[in-house]
Amino acid sequence: MQVSRAGGERRSNCPVACSLDVLGDRWTLLVIRDLLQGKSRYGEFLASAEGIPTNILADRLKRLEEAGLISSSQYGTHSRRKAYTLTKKGEGLAPALRALRDWGLSQFPGTHVPV
User: Fold this and answer.
1) Which residue in 6, 92, 100, 110 has a CA-CA distance of 20 to 30 Å to 68?
2) 108 and 59 in contact (C-beta within 8 Å)?
3) Cβ contact 64:51 at 8 Å
4) Could you say which architecture CATH assigns to the domain 26-107?
């Protein structure tokens, strides 16, 4: 197996498999969605309707940063408080998320875009 950019092992050289290795769990794309909608702080992610557990959120933010999709910077007087932003690489996911949103809107009656 080859080493992936996220530091783990690649299952294959298939681009879909490599993408899923970084993005393919139930929470990661929701964190990216929130970042695209302007959220940047830990508490803002926790406030999303899906109710991501704190330990999973911390892990996903760390993994996304290691994969180069987000970056973090300290804010305020507490050294542990971070604001997160998408990198250019992370912003590249916007069209894919829009496509998933549009498909979901057409396939699941009663759904709407979160605010």
Assistant:
1) 100
2) no
3) no
4) Orthogonal Bundle (1.10)
